[in-house]
Automatic annotation (TrEMBL):
Domain Methyltransferase: 62-150
Name of protein: SAM-dependent methyltransferase
InterPro entries given in the database record: Methyltransf_25 (IPR041698), SAM-dependent_MTases_sf (IPR029063)
A biological-process GO annotation: methylation
Length: 232
């Protein structure tokens, strides 16, 4: 039985090189389904809504780092249209295959994508909101402190993070569900590892403190997620 006391740093297959596009496509499609069924997209929307609620402006520039297949940006676009909010959306991902899939996945919706390490991006104008979903757990703690500082320094109104809680129920549930229903070898391998790379609340508090960030909202969300919100 694995220990849930400390974060795992076992590498996920998705973080490797030379993954065939078809494998990426299957992985991204299944992650979209998982996020839809287990409330991941709902949590991302909640992050946007809570930051937008603090301001009266109707024109928002929102950037996702580690955007993967672009599903979160598609969901935000739909929500914004329904609520008559003007949004400019962009996604950044270091994996060119993920970006290629994202461009196909959200074609003709006016969402921009960039292949890059987010740390190398220089904005002509800082986005209002920067966010990530299921991205932070890919990094070690010292890298995460730098990531928090970067998100804070490069956003005008604030940033948020949607990521996993490290919990035995989450681990064994996703392990069983993916073995039963997934057709992606990436999802079957990486989903349980992702949980083991997830966080306890006190870990987030420690990381935020090291990054010099205070008065940050850290709330638990179903199913086994953390929503971290920093309003500037």
């Amino acid at each position: 039985m694995p220990s849930f006391k400390y974060r795992s740093y076992q590498q996920e297959l998705l973080d490797g090189n030379a993954i065939p596009f078809e494998a990426i496509r299957q992985n991204m499609a299944e992650l979209d389904t998982i996020n839809h069924l287990l409330g991941g997209h709902r949590i991302t929307l909640k992050g946007v809504q809570l930051l937008v609620a603090n301001h009266t402006k109707q024109n928002w520039n929102i950037v996702e780092i580690g955007c993967g297949g672009g599903d979160n940006l598609r969901v935000i676009k739909k929500w914004a249209a329904k609520n008559h909010i003007d949004v400019t959306l962009a996604g950044i991902d270091i994996n060119k295959e993920c970006v290629e899939y994202a461009k196909q996945n959200v074609a003709n919706q006016g969402i921009q994508f960039l292949v890059s390490d987010y740390r190398d991006v220089q904005f002509d104008q800082k986005p209002d909101i920067i966010f990530s979903s299921l991205f932070s757990h890919h990094f070690k703690d010292d890298e995460l402190v730098d990531q928090l500082k970067w998100m804070n320094a490069n956003s005008q109104k604030g940033f948020f993070i949607n990521d996993l809680q490290r919990h035995p129920v989450a681990y064994y549930s996703i392990k069983l569900l993916t073995q039963l229903f997934s057709k992606s070898y990436l999802v079957k391998n990486d989903a349980p590892i992702s949980v083991m790379r997830g966080f306890h609340k006190e870990e987030w508090r420690r990381l935020l403190k090291k990054a010099g960030l205070h008065n940050v909202l850290c709330r638990w969300e179903w199913a086994f997620r953390w929503l971290i919100i920093c309003s500037i």
